[in-house]
Design goal:
There is one protein chain. By secondary structure, the protein is an alpha+beta fold. The chain folds into four domains: about 200 residues, DNA primase, PRIM domain (Alpha-Beta Complex), CATH 3.90.920; about 90 residues, no CATH class; about 70 residues, no CATH class; about 90 residues, Arc Repressor Mutant, subunit A, CATH 1.10.10. The chain is built from 17 helices and 16 strands. The strands form four sheets. The chain has a six-stranded mixed beta sheet with strand order 1-2-12-9-10-11. It has a four-stranded antiparallel beta sheet with strand order 5-6-4-7. The protein has a four-stranded antiparallel beta sheet with strand order 13-14-16-15. Strand 1 and strand 2 form a beta hairpin. The longest helix is centred in the first third of the chain and has 15 residues.
């Protein structure tokens, strides 16, 4: 029927995202943990209808879409649970029990992608906050959240991160979704279900993860507040009470031991025996402990961003920031993008190698200085990020070399030009005999004003020589001046064609 929207069109519309790049994934072997080792690449260009068709037809490589757009908004987000031993139906049942607007899809690795859809584009920051809260509630706080960042550095060649799309192979797929009853959806059923579950921006803003929440553990960590209302899983009661004891010491220093015994009776089922409680009390008396954020049961329900704002939560001064994914822009030298606390940090290689330099980038970008860890631990963190790095192959004009050349050309052609050789001393480039001469310090100042800091002075001079520039020393007004001279850049000499406006034409 004329005008009828096809399944393909609905699928493309449902997963609309960044329109200037897309992702592909190549399996290159197995990791030590048995999971597939993959190389992820970002391809520049629009994810065309042909690419979507090949995806639904099951033609490798499958398609990955970046949810965040250049205006830092999105129409969908996802909790990426990377656990191929996951009981999908059990997770789906927990989603339904909590009445979360999430749709579970089996992922490429056999884990789960929990999608949240909106009817309009919403701020990526809002999507990330709500999905993080839901992930913590479901016990998957350590899972990755898409979009992986609240903003994308588009002007620096950044693209954000892509997620592999469901329904690779159409209805004949292992990347299917489940409905509310836990049954497999066809592609058309999934699209109908997504429309049914989608939220408006207002509905998303107002959505509460824990409904009718009691005021328990006032100003305490959200993980403990959740666990005391839902119960501590078997095998975690000792650690649970230990962390409750830390909260008790912070919130009621004069009566904390009695509080620990009260928490044991009220929140642990069954309560720990008296000898176990005494052991915990003895431990807590010895020194001031920090919450064991990396241990169960609280690590699965961690919401560090909220916790840092709580009076008796973790201290921002001692807490490590949460790291997202690492992206490498394949320029020379490479540029790295790292998600830290939901913000996108741009770095050079040395910033990742050296913790002091990394601290400086964090201070300048997100106004935080993360605490230092041992060099060995830091190397482990960085290597883990490198094991899952996403590669961006950039076109020449988007590369660091391309950016430098564009700025050099602008420096030589777009700014006020020296009319005489003497005016070089005023910081102006001077053109004569098809050569443009300038002082290196003036070019460096121009690059700094345009926030280009990727090249050191030796790198700048090396690149100038690559572009045919020559160095010389000259006397100008009885002053010895080091100059660089580069072949003149082509400039616009022909007049631009302008429309012929008639007097009565509207403007």
């Amino acid at each position: 029927m004329t005008g009828q929207v096809t399944t393909l069109e609905r699928f493309i519309e449902r997963f609309s995202g960044l329109d200037r790049a897309y992702g592909t994934t190549e399996v290159v072997g197995l990791r030590e943990d048995g999971k597939k080792k993959v190389n992820s690449f970002v391809q520049h260009g629009e994810p065309t209808e042909v690419l979507w068709q090949k995806h639904l037809a099951g033609e490798e490589p499958s398609l990955g879409i970046i949810p965040i757009t250049d205006d830092n908004s999105c129409r969908w987000g996802c909790i990426d649970i990377d656990d191929f031993s996951l009981d999908l139906k059990s997770v789906n049942a927990r989603i339904q029990e909590r009445e979360f607007p999430l749709i579970l899809c089996r992922s490429k690795s056999g884990g789960a992608h929990l999608f949240l859809f909106t009817s309009v584009y919403v701020p990526a920051s809002l999507m990330r906050v709500k999905l993080s809260e839901m992930a913590a509630s479901l016990g998957f706080a350590s899972s990755e959240i898409f979009p992986k960042q609240s903003e994308v550095l588009s002007e620096r060649g950044d693209t954000g991160n892509f997620l592999n799309m469901p329904y690779f192979g159409g209805d004949d797929t292992t990347r299917y979704s489940l409905n509310a009853e836990g049954n497999v959806n066809t592609l058309d059923e999934f699209l109908d279900y997504a429309t049914e579950k989608q939220l408006t921006e207002e509905e998303l803003e107002k959505f509460k993860v824990i409904k009718n929440e009691k005021q328990v553990l006032k100003d305490g960590p959200p993980c403990l507040q959740f666990l005391v209302t839902q119960g501590f899983p078997q095998g975690t009661r000792n650690n649970g009470l230990f962390n409750l004891g830390i909260y008790a010491k912070l919130s009621d220093a004069d009566n904390w031991e009695a509080k620990v015994e009260e928490y044991n009776r009220e929140y642990l089922s069954p309560p720990l025996g008296s000898s176990e409680v005494l052991t915990i009390l003895k431990q807590l008396r010895t020194k001031e402990y920090n919450y064991k954020c990396n241990d169960q049961p609280i690590c699965s329900h961690c919401n560090s961003g909220v916790c840092k704002t709580r009076k008796f939560g973790i201290s921002p001064a001692t807490a490590m920031p949460s790291f997202g994914s690492l992206t490498k822009q394949n320029s020379n030298p490479p540029v790295w993008f790292l998600d830290v606390e939901g913000s996108r940090l741009e770095m050079i290689t040395e910033d990742l190698q050296n913790q002091t330099r990394f601290q400086r980038v964090c201070m300048e970008t997100i106004d935080k200085m993360p605490p230092k860890m041992s060099d060995r631990a830091w190397q482990g963190v960085i290597q883990n990020l490198l094991d899952n790095v996403t590669i961006i192959d950039v076109p020449k004009d988007a590369s660091i070399e391309g950016q430098f050349q564009d700025l050099l050309e602008a420096f030589c052609t777009d700014r006020a030009q020296a009319q005489t050789r003497e005016e070089i001393l005023l910081g102006k480039p001077y053109t004569e005999d098809n050569k443009t001469s300038f002082r290196l310090s003036d070019l460096e100042a121009y690059l700094q004003r345009h926030n280009f800091r990727q090249f050191t002075r030796p790198k700048i001079t090396a690149r100038l020589r690559d572009l045919g520039a020559e160095h010389s020393g000259q006397n100008i007004k009885n002053k010895f001046v080091n100059l660089w001279a580069i072949p003149t850049f082509d400039t616009q000499t022909d007049p631009f064609d302008l429309p012929d406006f008639k007097q009565d034409d509207p403007i």
